[in-house]
Amino acid sequence: MYDPTGSNSPVKLAHLAIQEDCPALFLFALKHGFSYLDDALHDACRFGILPLAHRMIHIGADKWNLGFDGACVGGHYKLARLMMDMGADDLSSGLQTACRNGNYPLIQLIVGRGAYDWNMVLNTVIRCCNLQFAHLIIDKCVNDSNRVLHFACKSGNLQLAQHEIDKGATNWKQGFLGACEGGHLELAQLIFDKGGINCLDHALYIACQSGNLRLVQFLIDKGATNWDGGLIGACEGCHLELVQLMFDKGANKHNISLLECRLFKPKIIDYIRSIDISQ
Question: Which residue from 133, 122, 131 is spatially nearest to 155, judged by alpha carbons?
């Protein structure tokens, strides 16, 4: 196994040669027993040493996905392209790394080669602190504004949600439920004000599961009355205050058996056991 910190001097020399971009030292390490060619290919790609990567390929390295991973981690466009040309096919992993690093040219390259895992792209990019970059990637790679709206609402990205609304997103139900799932009151209010929301009872279950008391109260104020569904959601999310609220509102005391509560936190089970179901 390739261990740059090990006691094997050829390994140490090879690792140092890659870091310092010193081909002569690397050739010396090869002559003296270094044989971890695929790991060296990964490091050459990671540190952006194109001639050394070519040398590794020439003398037998052939783990293209390993090299591709190194190139994506290091953000090296030419080496990533070389590894894909050679046969690297783990595009989703490389795309995720490129998105995480904010490397737009590399993202374009990988998308152009057929990467299409938009769930992963959205999850990664929506959490990007550079909003301009997030807009750029989404506008380039994802054509479904409603889908992005859902992800933005779920993750609490108000600016991105507004961006997608401005682009034409109109699936308010999808965005509203996403905001409730993420527990984001401001986004739930924004989408609710757009009109046409007819899923308040289902949203109550989701909001109770996410645990935002203010969001739950907002839904109740707007007309949600699914106390039994809210109770189940609150129990699943282990939110004692919301469990109590749903019972106070009128949730059926017979609705949740202790059998169903086996995976709930002890405080939830203890509270339910304390309720007098005969009343």
Answer: 122
